[in-house]
Amino acid sequence: MSYLLAPSILSADMSHLGDAVIMLDKSQADWVHVDVMDGVFVPNLTFGFPIIKAIRPLTTKLFDVHLMMVQPERYIKEFKKAGADILTVQYEACTHLHRTIQEIKNAGMQAGVAINPHTPAIMLQDALQDLDLVLVMSVNPGFGGQSFIPQSLLKIRSIKKMMAACGSHAVIEVDGGVNRDNLVQIVEAGADVIVAGNAIFSTSRPIDTIAELKAMK
Ligand code: DX5
Ligand code: ZN
Predict the structure, then answer these.
(1) What do you get for the CA distance between the two ends of the chain, in Å?
(2) DSSP string, 61-82
(3) Ligand 1 atom closest to 142 (CA)
(4) Which of 11, 91, 133, 213 to mutate to test the pocket of ligand 1 (most atoms within 8 A of CB)?
């Protein structure tokens, strides 16, 4: 079983955020998942540009920035400057999704689109060929530590089929409620990248947990 692991620093100890990123740099984690919340699209607020800029030099791992915010197109260049490598916007927050995807790519980042649990996979049909990443939200965005919504497995499978049909090379990332009990079936359903927050940072030795999750078969 092969997949990329993107620990979400949303669940890290915020009083030692820099140490958490340094730990991830030394760990077997593949990417660093950064959840940006605006208090409007979701009922929570998290990281802004100064924080992302401050932690960016602490690792060479790819910064996978997930924007849970309205009007994300207003800040594309700022996120590039802050150090984002992949920029993922929420489908539900974008009126002109095609334009936003092109602007992310023109800014020199990989472009991702996330869909909420209630958004049908088919809504991505006409965007798939342009995307580098599709993010399947397997919880309602806003908080770490929620339970995985089982119907997400069907959605991962349908997106995989839609991608094969149109020749899309996007990767499928799954975000929310992933743990050691459901990880294998999520990867078997077609996930290429797994986000995990609580499952990693609630343990006493996150670096060992990452190694264990990466070794799962
Ligand atoms: C939820 C965020 C997730 C969150 C996942 O809105 O997008 O990335 O950090 O946390 P866990 O793995 O704890 O569900
Ligand atoms: Zn996320």
Answers:
(1) 5
(2) SEEEEEEESS-GGGGHHHHHHH
(3) 6
(4) 11
Tell me the two tokens of residue 11: 């669940």
173 lines ligand 1 (CB under 6 A): no
Model confidence pLDDT, tens digit, residues 25-82:
999 999 999 999 999 999 999 999 999 999 999 999 999 999 999 999 999 999 999 9
For ligand 1, whether the C-beta of 112 sits within 6 Å is no
Four-residue CA torsion sign, 105, 40, 34, 91: negative
Q: Which of 27, 39, 16, 22 is nearest to 211 (CA)?
A: 27
Where does the chain show beta strands of DSSP type E? 4-7, 31-37, 62-68, 86-90, 110-115, 133-137, 171-175, 193-196
Determine contact, residues 114/89, Cβ cutoff 8 Å: yes
Q: Tokens in use for 24?
A: 């991830």
pTM of the model: 0.98
Neighbours of 119 (CB within 10 A): 16
**CB of 33 shorter than 6 A to ligand 1:** yes
